[in-house]
């Protein structure tokens, strides 16, 4: 019979997994407590949580849910990263930490309904941030609009230039024909 403590731990994990966009399983073997604290801090900055879990309790928490596929990766010392916010920001923070701390091993990720192996999580981390993508889109739209305005105003500009040249030529011609005062 399960103890109340275990039931509470499973319910806590279920509530963490409820409505998540991102779940990443990591192996933290070889990291110091200070390094784990640093990782938690970096992940909190991108609205993510890092929690060391008992594999058996985690399997119970994800049973009969969309996350059930993570169960095969719950082996050895495991910690779970969960986030309900931007998956790219989480992947960037995690990979930045992993570059500096080789002991952190990324097992698998679950991003918005898809299971992703570590190489695909790295590819996600290499994407520009949401703000950078928005800026690129706005820049592309703005440059297209500027080009359109240029194309629309080109005939008017050309006409004004031709009229200016004709006016200058007519003035020069009129100045050449005018009698000179004696």
Question: What's the short version?
Answer:
This protein has helices at residues 4-17, 33-44, 55-62, 87-100, 118-125, 130-177; strands at 22-27, 48-53, 78-83, 105-111, 114-116.
Characterization of this structure:
This protein has 182 residues and is α+β, with helices and mostly antiparallel strands. The protein folds into 2 domains: 4-127, Ribosomal protein L10, N-terminal RNA-binding domain (Alpha-Beta Plaits, 2-Layer Sandwich); 129-176. Helices cover 57% and strands 15% of the residues. The protein has helices spanning 4-17, 33-44, 55-62, 87-100, 118-125, 130-177; strands at residues 22-27, 48-53, 78-83, 105-111, 114-116. It has a 5-stranded antiparallel beta sheet. A hairpin with a 2-residue loop joins β4 (105-111) and β5 (114-116). α4 (87-100) packs across α5. The chain is rod-shaped.
List keywords for this structure.
182 residues, alpha+beta, 5 strands, single chain, Alpha-Beta Plaits, 5-stranded antiparallel beta sheet, 15% strand
What's the arrangement of secondary structure elements?
Blueprint lengths: L3 H14 L4 E6 L5 H12 L3 E6 L1 H8 L15 E6 L3 H14 L4 E7 L2 E3 L1 H8 L4 H48 L5
Antiparallel strand pairs: 1-3, 1-4, 2-3, 4-5
Helix pairs in contact: 1-3, 4-5
